[in-house]
Amino acid sequence: MINRKQLLSMIEEMETFSPSNAKIKLEQYATDAIASVELGFIAGIMHADLQERLVIDLGAGTGRLSITCLFFGAWRVIGVEIDLDAIKIARDNAKKFGFDDKLDLIIANVSPEKFIIRRKLNKDDLDKEITIVMNPPFGVHDKGADLRFLMAAINVPRVRVIYSFHLKNERNRQYIRNKMEKVNWEVVSLYQTEMFIPRLYKFHEKTRKKVEVDIYRIMPVE
Ligand code: SAH
What pLDDT, in 10s, does the model give residues 43-101? Predict the structure, then answer.
């Protein structure tokens, strides 16, 4: 067993986006290690939503969140990502931690309209319940991206629960709650945390910026 501190330093040391490869139009920011572990703890320990689950990570990027879920006992993770450069990094990271057979990476555009997860499920996955995790683009450079990710998530068959990071503010909370209610899903809980965003893009002024975020736990209305 590894402890929280060891897990944090392993995740922090993972290869991730750098100023030379990060693509701003895709809002590529590595999920902060503390926030990743926070999500793993909330989903895996508090709600038992990771062990033995098939986890799907939308916008998997360099794999921090996917690999965190594997450390918390996920059966298997399917990471969906549009950018091949990020997928290559995620693949190397999985290998480094011995999770190469447990992290499957699909190159695809996450969108509510055309979603292709189904074809990746194999026989052993079929009796597993599905948990979706994601740190989607917050919609700052790609307007509406966060909602598109949520709508794509609820369209995946057999999803039990979604964990998703969004910028913390009251308007966002109200907006996401309303949108989910309209499609018969519900924001069951919100957990506040923070992320440190390193200086990746030219317009960043500070070397590190603290951003307050919420982790949403979203479920279908029974
Ligand atoms: N958890 C990831 C970072 C998520 S940042 C990590 O640890 O690295 C958001 C990710 O969503 C980026 O990797 C970005 O390339 C991806 N993305 C943005 N738009 C997308 C789309 N339409 N379809 C799939 N992935 C997308």
Answer: 999 999 999 999 999 999 999 999 999 999 999 999 999 999 999 999 999 999 999 99
Phi, psi of 60 (to 5 degrees): -70, -20
Task: Write out pLDDT tens, residues 164-178.
Answer: 999 999 999 999 999
CB-CB neighbours of 31 under 10 Å: 27
- Residue 2, SS3? coil
C-beta 31 within 6 A of ligand 1: yes
Contact 193, 169 (CB under 8 A): no
Q: Ligand 1 centroid to 222 CA: how many Å? A: 30
* Residue 65 CB–ligand 1 contact under 6 Å: yes
Q: How far is the CA of 145 from the centre of ligand 1 (A)?
A: 10
